[in-house]
């Protein structure tokens, strides 16, 4: 069936079991696929449940629409669909991207969710995210087709030529390459753990033992500390577990959804206390400690400043790598000692670097934890965690830059670039010149060149020449880039203002003169 949702066409199927009193399961598919990826599990599920499955916007027979492709948009689509069908509550099961949508839906519409099943969730250790993102984007090159052979060979344990693989390949090849690339970026930018920790619905997490795209180890270690979550690993399955063993998967889903209670009443106080003690013990081995209520506020524009609960911490930041380590933890709130040593002192023997790190961490912890009962810096045996609510202008700049790069709507993108322009008015240079920080800063500058040149050309087409040139002038205070100057000169000529032409000609000639001297 097709259903109009907010002026966009959503294609769905509502299958009914023989028992009218059955509850409903909603299935949400993954990237580079459509709802037919569930063809192999629906026959089993229909024996016990009504089943709703649908094509996400931009996939299968559903329209792309004009809304940005975001988890919020996908969650709102599902909400509208369930309302139209007349479902007030359902069990939600999502695969990969679908799992992220399911989490967001449970966060936004908690009263409509009986329970969740999350399959092959994209979730990675923070220190590996950049490398994994680079790899994911590299296997989806510019072109007219999805690299299905490579993806399906890794994503399933089924042999080549299996009917399920052939069908999945056909669905993937029918997908819009640009939509799939956009979804890949969205998926890699998502951090499901915070939202997963803050929902209350009973949740089962299922991963494939052979999954190389979304390995389960980090995710399953973290969710051990979430009392509403259970997690299992399916043998002989990869990330497309709905294809690899649909019968086993369906049996797991049916057994979970049919439970009348999600916890067994325990009358023995000792057993209850031991269960909680063991959970706490396992959690403390390797998981981030619970967040604290303190607000850590860092400003990098102008003079470097740090506040904890609005109280300034003015001294000690230029000693023992305190400023550098703090900014590193702001960007990587959880990091291993090896990762820190490799970033800051790659040429030192690891034992020496770790010894130095202990001294530097003691100094930083003293700065951050003074006069506070709950420590902001949690120094574990293997990993270091920065807790509390972190507010930082650098994080804001990273976030809005990523949003602008991914935003497909012109008006919204222009607004985001205006926010970047406002931020750059207070940032003339990076706060650190260490290699790891300059790598981030240089990447940001490259993104800004792309965004500001695009914005200026869009504004010029609307006749807003002075606004376009003002933005470029702001960008050039932080980015000395010839392409931006050439864009400005081009726009100055289009404006037919001799004053602007003379101004930007001098700027262009001066830049070239300085470059030749260098």
UniProtKB/TrEMBL annotation:
GO terms for molecular function: hydrolase activity. Keywords: Hydrolase, Transcription, Transcription regulation. Residues 24-130 form the AB hydrolase-1 domain. PANTHER family: MONOACYLGLYCEROL LIPASE (PTHR43798). This is Alpha/beta fold hydrolase. The lineage of its organism: Bacteria, Bacillati, Bacillota, Bacilli, Bacillales.
């Amino acid at each position: 069936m097709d259903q109009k949702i907010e002026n966009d066409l959503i294609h769905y199927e509502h299958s009914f079991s023989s028992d009218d009193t059955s509850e409903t399961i909603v299935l949400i598919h993954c990237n580079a696929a459509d709802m037919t990826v569930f063809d192999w599990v629906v026959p089993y599920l229909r024996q016990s449940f009504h089943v709703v499955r649908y094509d996400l916007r931009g996939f299968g027979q559903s329209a792309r629409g004009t809304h940005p492709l975001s988890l919020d948009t996908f969650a709102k689509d599902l909400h509208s669909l369930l309302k139209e069908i007349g479902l007030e509550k359902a069990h939600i099961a999502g695969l990969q991207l679908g799992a992220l949508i399911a989490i967001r839906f449970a966060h936004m519409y908690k009263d409509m969710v009986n329970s969740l099943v999350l399959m092959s969730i994209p979730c990675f250790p923070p220190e590996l995210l950049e490398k994994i993102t680079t790899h994911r984007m590299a296997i989806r090159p510019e072109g007219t087709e999805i690299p299905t052979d490579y993806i399906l060979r890794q994503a399933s344990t089924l042999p080549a030529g299996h009917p399920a693989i052939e069908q999945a390949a056909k669905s993937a090849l029918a997908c819009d390459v640009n939509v799939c690339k956009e979804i890949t970026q969205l998926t890699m930018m998502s951090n499901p753990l915070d939202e997963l920790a803050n929902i209350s619905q009973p949740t089962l997490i299922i991963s494939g033992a052979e999954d190389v795209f979304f390995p389960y180890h980090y995710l399953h270690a973290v969710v051990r500390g979430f009392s509403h979550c259970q997690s299992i690993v399916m043998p002989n399955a990869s990330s497309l577990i709905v294809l690899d063993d649909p019968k086993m998967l369906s049996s797991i889903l049916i057994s979970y959804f049919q439970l009348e209670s999600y916890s067994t009443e325990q009358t023995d106080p000792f057993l209850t206390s031991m269960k909680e003690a063991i959970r706490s013990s396992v959690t403390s081995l390797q998981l981030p400690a619970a967040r604290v209520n303190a607000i850590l506020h860092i400003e990098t524009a102008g003079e470097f400043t740090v506040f904890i609960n609005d109280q300034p911490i003015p001294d000690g930041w230029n000693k023992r790598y305190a400023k550098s380590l703090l900014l590193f933890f702001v960007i990587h709130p959880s990091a291993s000692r090896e990762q820190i040593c490799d970033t800051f002192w790659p040429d030192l023997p690891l034992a020496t670097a770790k010894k130095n790190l202990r001294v530097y961490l003691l100094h930083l912890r003293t700065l951050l934890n003074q006069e506070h009962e709950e420590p902001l810096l949690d120094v574990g045996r293997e990993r270091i965690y920065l807790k509390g609510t972190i507010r930082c202008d650098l994080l804001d700049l990273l976030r809005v830059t990523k949003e602008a790069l991914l935003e497909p709507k012109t008006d919204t993108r222009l607004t985001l670039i205006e926010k970047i322009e406002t931020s750059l008015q207070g940032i003339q240079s990076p706060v650190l010149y260490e290699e790891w920080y300059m790598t981030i800063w240089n990447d940001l500058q490259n993104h800004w060149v792309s965004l500001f040149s695009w914005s200026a050309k869009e504004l010029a087409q609307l006749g807003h020449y002075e606004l376009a040139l003002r933005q470029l002038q702001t960008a050039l205070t932080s980015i000395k880039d010839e392409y931006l100057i050439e864009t400005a000169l081009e726009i100055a000529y289009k404006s037919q203002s001799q004053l602007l032409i003379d101004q930007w000609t001098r700027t262009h000639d001066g830049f070239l003169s300085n470059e030749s001297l260098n």
